[in-house]
Design goal:
6 copies of one chain form a homohexamer. By secondary structure, the first copy, chain A, is of the alpha/beta class. Helices cover about 35% and strands about 25% of the residues of chain A. In chain A, strands 1, 4, 9, 10, 11, 12, 13, 14 and 15 form a 9-stranded mixed β-sheet that branches. The first copy, chain A, has a 4-stranded mixed β-sheet with strand order 3-2-7-8. In chain A, helix 10 crosses helix 11. Chain A is globular and about 45 Å long. The relative contact order of chain A is 0.13. The interface between A and B is medium-sized, with 31 and 29 residues. Strand 3 of chain B pairs antiparallel with strand 3 of chain D.
């Protein structure tokens, strides 16, 4: 069992019931989620010792977030308690030609106002094997980029593997700022997750022959992008999830892992009837971390990560409520849609 | 901003929750809808000054209908209050091979018992630019065909554009009666909406090479039908929505607009995971009215109308809860299924 | 109107709401179901005089099961009241690559502890035309195999047609035991329902050229299997449902009926947006029984049975809440997905 | 087991979820109910052979009503199928100072358009012991008063006991008409149920010393009213339910039975937390019928009837979903609020 | 019909379903509310021309708030669109000894960041008769106290009646600051609403003989407080709601109105089964405004206001979904808990 | 922070939504609960280090139970995994005169089939301060009485305080057997919780002057019972919860604690609008344990325990979702029903 520390923001998520639009009837579902928290829950579900580090307001909403993670056995004992509010987001589920819609309300959150002294990385990293964060955390502003830097440094010094999911969000910061800060952070990163859009917008690396908007995906283009990322940052492993999005409820999904030598591509899943796509990238990242922690080879790792991500599309909420056994079964069989009795 | 007056019946709609059959558990969803009311709500959502004229019973159910329209900013100040009941219909959502099912209970409704003196068209049409009704209204019997005639005449005299969606419903009247009355009404109509079935059943105009039941659609057949409609009635614009229905939850949809000179055909949408198809024709009609009011050319208009109709398939209830921006975005991009953040 | 007696276990079924995982929120839907009870409900819905024979605990849960059948007009007056509990099962609805999941908790149920003296077959079979059971009943252990044997014998003696759906469940008994007991029981069976997997696991008869896991279905392979079944057991009719399972929510379905002379294959349905697949085999069996009771030819029978089964995929719960008219309409038209108004 | 025939209208009832107002969110609960149908369900729950006679439209809504009664084992085989619609009513649940609100939409229902020839009383009353109707049925107009008269005559001729619950509804008919028709009908009635308001408005008999609006109830006043009713109509038994209504959710309830000699008054229940009061009078009537059918004395009968009515206040929907055992237990103990395990 | 302008913040309100605690299952109900918005909705429901002035973010959440008011016919055309977020609050419904709990998250809301130039009072007050705000608005900080001052001045100059509900909230500002600012604002106020706690905390005026925590209410103490308020500020009318809170679900409520000469006290309501108490003070204030606008005398006004407030306790959400007719009926009758049919 | 170990069965609880009867609509709520698990959750909520020891089946239902406890931070690491099923119970919520109803289905559960070797008390009790069980555990049969004995012995030897809640359930065992086994177990018990019924049925000690069914409670009678319990078993502390049950939704509640010298009686709570009473005794027991662990005096302890129990009546489900702060606040103030903002 590896001890994996993740660091980021967890938010309250509010979604209308079913396929309703926001405020259509007022029936809503509340849950919690955030990129790094989602990774932690996946790892805990797979059986790892997952730690989620964040800052939460010391009131009912903040405790609600911590309790939701406790439900999955994620260790939240390093939480910095303080601040005024938990960030939140509204998420409307799309169907067919109507895309899913996320509206964020996270300004002034407890996490955004975190200070470096809120986190004692020496203590946090005790017995840890892996540290994971995403590009969302430094994008949140305040001192978070600096705190990420400190965490990466501390992890490096202790010989802890560092992974980063690029996760570019244009609403949070402009491309230039993202490029500057992410370039600095990636110096300490061993394993990089993302997709071709992230690579292009964050680092200006274009997957030739690929036009995501038009649904054209080029295998060789991806590989070139990955090679360039490796060359530029010295990543030990690079993992991309590849998606062709036919509609909000029908996607094709595969994964690609590059260890500097070999490109391993997973089987492709035709995903019909998507229930909730939010967090599927985090599930992929968690699968990659899990496979590498277990010492699996690239093919086995990318198959597992892609199967985990494919399953996430069938689960409501941010968290990927699937077990290691369920993911392995799908990775092995490719899915047959039969009832399990 | 154009002022568009629509005239028709609004009903209470009762649907079982999810994909349940009627009375399977007793959980139901109540909303309001009706062909012309749906058009008014769409236009209000697009930013137009929409007026809905009807007759409602002066009790909680009638006021519920008016309030539901007020929620979208539709002007209901010309409502004739009176009568005993609001018409209603039950609507079971289909899935796969099980078709959606609508059961109407509208006999004796306040609207069906409307009298010509309930509506002062001079006042109603003050400052109006457009008048819209559908073939359902005269089909309801009583004095409604006569009232429609009066409204069309009044609109014509004031130089208001008149549009009509043929909307043939075999349960409401026999073909011969529909033909007789609709032929008379269409003399005052400038813009005609419908589909090839309406044209055939109402006016006996057959789209050669098309067999809707078998899913065979012929572009040239449609065009001939439209030409004949123009020749016969002198319509300035004719708009058809074309649908290939693979199952209750999977359709292909496109639109065709003919201005007497040019045939403009929209892109075709593959609609998977249909949430609720009721009212999608009304959304198409509203899109046509909106484009023509804005002075858009035929292609832009039919792309907008078809995108609006495509989006409706993802929305629960009769009303198309989408904004002008959302429709335009789909019309421009064709939809990529990505999450909007 | 034929009188059809079915014999088996009915259970309480508990499912999370929507596409939630078990205990994700605690919202659940309770209904009742079981292979033979499902057949009885289908037959009652088609207009037959359906009798369901079982043993139920004389408390609220047992009475709940009886009342649920009473809702459909199934005759439960021959229920043996006694025992401590009603068996139950949990059923999670799958979507896309996530399969549906059923967890049974039926040990020690009132039915499993039934005794031969609980059922007076002479009385039960008065005026009966048909007796139906499935391979699940003898698999439940206790004295149920023996009771099945007695029922079959009694039916035979009275000239009642006996049908059996093989319905192999690996969790309930090992293949060898199934083979031994089902072989004995099939001696009294006139009409056999099942699929190629049942034939292979229960009787060791392989459909050559077919690999269900891989989605390869061979028409000729099925026919050979059916011929062998007829040769070995002397069945008068054999009916198979053939399924290609692309995902939990997308299947292709057809049916095959063999009367010892002719193979009748139904049209194939592309089922998208599957709502609930549990009980679809029972719907097929009920359709076969219904067609044969009515004296329909093989083609009409298998078309009806397959249409009934296809419709079941759109219905929540075990019971197939469709009428004879609805099934016939689909069987005749193949489904066009249009709204019925 | 006595065979009790009831005759009246059953309606679809639509109620907002919880304590919402109509159309507050659109979440509604559908169930079925009507005074005489409610009596039939109660009697079936108590173990009697209950028959409900009505006219229903032969479509999904009418069949839904019949199925809902079938769930409780009520015999609906004498239903006259025909007409266009099922009557319905909307029912908003009150709380505290906000009264419950019922809005009826029953004009033109299948039942209101019933004809005498729809009902063959000779066949219906075969093996029957009791016939029950309420003042609502003749109040519905059309030929219903005449049909009631025919039914009463037929029952009388066969020696069947006839009971009538006065159930005056001012919305349905004026006092004078009610008086005229009910006076005629009561000539054939053996057992009369009602309350002091009914007696006053229908027959002009005032309970002196009682002011229901002011919450003043006078025992002796009631007795005088009952004596006068007996003198005037020769009723064998008269049963009143007495209610002091403190708020929509808090009432005091007792019952009074007069057999021409003795006045039997039940214990009084302080009902807090009323869930749904609709149908509580019907539960009382059913309890009276049940006790008299069983040959119980007046005190036992009125205690049972009042306990049944008290329990109804805790049950959602029109139907009193309680067993004979539960009612007897409350009648014996007076209720202690303990959990039954 | 009077034109009443109210000014304040409207928030999104999120409440767990039923009596659940926050995040117990994740089922939530979303609605909108805020002290002044609640007053506007009440007045619109009573038939007045109600205007609500606020600042809203120009995204889905802000538009949701405006649409919710449009549903009731409140005029929101003077909305200042801008800012980043809508304030929100979480509200857990109490029962018995568990109090209701409200958690606010309104920092940084669009309204809190309003500027004086966002509101053109000259235009807003065109044709207005009344201006209403509460002590919450200046307490929100930023420039809101100054904006309130400007609005009051403008109203005064135009001869518009100004009313203020003291509405002290200790979480928003300290007593001293409240006293300073409210004292200044009250110079322009004609009609003051509040309760004895407000008077004590805001202005240091103690109701002798009253101990709210202990449930001791002294009529004469209130009167003295009111006299002192009138002497100090020259209010033309002062209205207090008086509440004895036995539990979260059981309160006694009455109202007191003082016009400088006469004290008018309403009847007292025993409120059992409280559904939702939030907004009941706003309902009282709206009732006072309504009565005074109509020119009613003090007694009629306070009876109406108290009845409106009593009814609010039975309504879910902030808005008092009752009509003028319903309030008058309760005010006249005192409530009898009978079903209205 | 004390470490408190509890030992018992946890079950799946299934309740109809709202105040529905079982299977009225099929909407159910699933949660988990059991006497000792409820105590553990309360203690964890109060901030103690709570350990729950049980045996669970290693499938989704068993893991669901463990996860539900993990949500509250209860340590379930000592769970013995094995067995076939989780026990479950159905629980219908009562209202007014209709009592709550619990139907158990726990035979053959994983816990009932536990063996002594499943639990290594030496390891379990490491660092523990307190051990708690209830009379339900030995009543479940199998080897559970023996396992309880071993646990008590082990606790005693380690100087761990042992508490037992008598919790007599007549459905589980006869009085004589209960008396024999509980007498033996109580030899090792330091702190005894229960009520006068338990004392009478389990140990034959009658509270003179008390008739629970009739609602007569005698303070002195209780004290005598407690004295006799202390004399007979040498308990260091005895705590009784005293309840007068007016209806299913209205109770009066107080607590009594006897330390061998002083009788401390808490304030009495008038509980209206009871939401869910199940588990209120467990909340009382947890409050007693918490107070004694903290070293509080008898009066403070019994006030806290009674306030905790009173709050439980307002919470859905078995678990008492309240914090130490909330309980203390109620214990200090007695509850005023005001909204907390």
């Amino acid at each position: 069992m590896s001890r994996v520390v993740t660091f980021g923001e967890i938010m309250l998520r509010l979604s209308p019931a079913g396929w309703q639009r926001l405020f259509q009837t007022g029936e809503m579902r509340a849950c919690f989620g955030g990129a790094e928290a989602n990774v932690a829950v996946s790892l805990a579900n797979f059986g790892e010792d997952a730690v989620f580090v964040t800052r939460l307001p010391d009131q009912e909403i903040g405790h609600g977030a911590a309790d939701a993670l406790g439900r999955f056995g994620v260790d939240v004992s390093h939480t910095a308690w303080g601040g005024d509010r938990l960030g939140l987001y509204f998420c409307e589920r799309g169907a067919g030609v109507r895309n899913s819609l996320c509206i964020y309300d996270r300004a002034g959150s407890a996490f955004q106002r975190a200070k470096p002294e809120d986190f004692d990385w020496d203590t946090i990293f005790r017995a840890a094997d892996w540290f994971h964060f995403t590009g969302i955390t430094p994008a949140l502003g305040g001192e978070l980029a600096r705190i990420c830097q400190e965490a990466c440094r501390a992890a490096r010094q202790k010989g802890i593997t560092v992974s980063c999911d690029l996760n570019y969000r244009s609403r949070l910061w402009p491309e230039e700022e993202a490029r500057r800060i992410m370039t600095a952070l990636c110096a300490d990163v061993d394993v990089c997750m993302g997709n071709e859009e992230d690579a292009e917008t964050v680092f200006g690396i274009h997957s030739s022959g690929t036009d995501v908007q038009a649904g054209i995906l080029s295998g060789r283009g991806y590989e070139k992008t990955m090679e360039e990322l490796r060359d530029r940052f010295g990543f030990r492993q690079i993992a991309f999830s590849l998606r062709a999005s036919h509609s909000a409820t029908r996607n094709d999904l595969s994964g690609l892992l590059y260890d500097g030598e070999r490109f391993c591509r997973s089987r492709e899943y035709q995903l019909d009837h998507i229930v909730d796509r939010v967090g599927s990238g985090d599930s992929f990242a968690a699968g990659v971390i899990f496979g590498l922690c277990r010492g699996w080879d690239g093919q086995k790792t990318v198959e597992f990560a892609t199967a985990a991500s494919a399953l996430k599309h069938s689960i409501e909420g941010d968290f990927n409520r699937v077990s290691c056994r369920e993911v392995s079964k799908l990775a092995d069989s490719g899915g047959n849609g039969r009832i399990e009795r």
